Amino acid sequence: MAMTDQEILTGLGEIVDEVAGVPADQVTPEKTFVDDLDIDSLSMVEIAVAAQDKFGVEIPDDQLKDLKTVQDVIDYVRRTAVSA
Amino acid sequence: MRQTEGTAGARILAFGGYQPARVVTNDELAATVDTNDEWIRSRVGIASRRIAGPDETVADMAVQAGGKALAASGLSPEDIDLVIVATCTPEAQIPNTAATVARRLGINAPGAYDMNAACAGFCYALANANDAVRTGTAGNVLVIGAEKLSQWIDWTDRSTCIIFADGAGAVVVSPVADADEAGIGPVVWGSAGDMADKIYIPDRDGFIIQEGQAVFRWATTALHPVAKKACERAGVDPTELAAFVPHQANLRIVEAIARKIGAPQALVADDIVTAGNTSSASIPLALSRMLERGELASGAPVLLLGFGAGICYAGQVIKVP
């Protein structure tokens, strides 16, 4: 069943909270991971790994570098989950 | 054909650690490469590391750590009949390090070999020692992890020179008469040769090259099941662990694995903060320092987990001597 943007955002908020200690309510679509949420490249890898467990969507390193904002990840997960 | 008579099990009698005198701080590195203290602390968790003197060899450090473990064990050099040195930075391919170290410690004609499983080397060597004692192939074994990684580092490469360091750690492994007294659990080991190119030294004159992000992803996804399986095979629930002492690769990797093994009560080794990544030496070095600080009670179960170049990995549960 396809996930809605809101469902992905909620799941992503939980992941970011667990991995980087950033409260889930700060994880909003327009935020950038690096500049707004102060998340570094290693935490991004951990977020990608946790997203795979939660959403069943693999985010390889070469794709990960292009995902700058929370919305970018939401779009990627929705798109990839649908095509999978 | 006649076979050796085995023993009920083996345990670690004592630990010994050695760190070279010279402390290299992050600020010192920042003076020569484009990095800074805050960046290094946040990405790898290292505040300072120890670097061997120009004439100080892997064997020198191994003798120091091995000598301390031997003295602490209460055994004499003549009681040891096997010496294993886990190292990926020996001075030469031949002669091996182990025979030289044995001679310098006054151990007479033991079986002696070096073994290279890089940062997993200590756990591999400990498993070998355990098996040798259990099968009766050896009486008492001196196991040493010793590395001089500083001589395989490009000191202008800021991605590696901030991480790797020098040091040695050792244990003495001895038989027990009763299986209940056994203090080394079954090893869970493996490798991923398809990732051989993620951490490597290209040639004899080359330096360590590492794809940090790929290694980080692998370490934070593939290893916690290995750790859990080592607990399962030893019959120790993760919630019973007194400590988790993984290879001190990167504090972020250590913490990520620790979060996933289901042992919130366990003390997690963070020796990397002042020791750096010393490859095969990191686990026995961290443990020897935890014991010196009185952080672990005798008999307490501790999970070890080595992993690194190869890629090779191994884990086992031990009891604190």
Question: How would you explain this protein's 3D organization?
Answer:
The complex is a heterodimer of chains A (84) and B (321). With 84 residues, chain A is mostly helical. Helices cover 58% and strands 0% of the residues of chain A. Chain A has a single domain (5-83), classed as Non-ribosomal Peptide Synthetase Peptidyl Carrier Protein, Chain A, CATH 1.10.1200.10. Chain A contains four helices and no strands. Chain B has 321 residues and is an alpha/beta fold. Chain B folds into two domains: 9-179, Peroxisomal Thiolase, Chain A, domain 1 (3-Layer(aba) Sandwich); 181-319, Peroxisomal Thiolase, Chain A, domain 1 (3-Layer(aba) Sandwich), CATH 3.40.47. Chain B is built from nine helices and 14 strands. Chain B has helices spanning 26-30, 37-44, 58-73, 97-104, 121-135, 212-234, 251-260, 272-275, 282-292; strands at residues 9-18, 22-25, 48-51, 82-86, 111-115, 141-148, 166-176, 188-191, 199-200, 209-210, 243-246, 267-268, 301-308, 312-319. Chain B starts with 8 loop residues before the first strand and ends with a strand.
- What portion of the residues of chain B fall into strands of 2 or more residues? 15-25%
Rg calc of chain A = 11 Å
- Which fold name fills CATH's third level, the topology of chain A? Non-ribosomal Peptide Synthetase Peptidyl Carrier Protein, Chain A
Question: What's the architecture of chain A in CATH terms?
Answer: Orthogonal Bundle
Mean pLDDT of chain A: 91
What fold name goes in the CATH topology slot of the largest domain in chain B?
Peroxisomal Thiolase, Chain A, domain 1
Q: Give the count of helical stretches of chain B.
A: 9
Largest beta sheet of chain B, briefly? 5 strands, mixed
Give Rg of chain B in angstroms.
Answer: 18 Å
Q: Helix- and strand-based class of chain B?
A: alpha/beta
What is the string of SSEs of chain A from the N terminus onward? HHHH
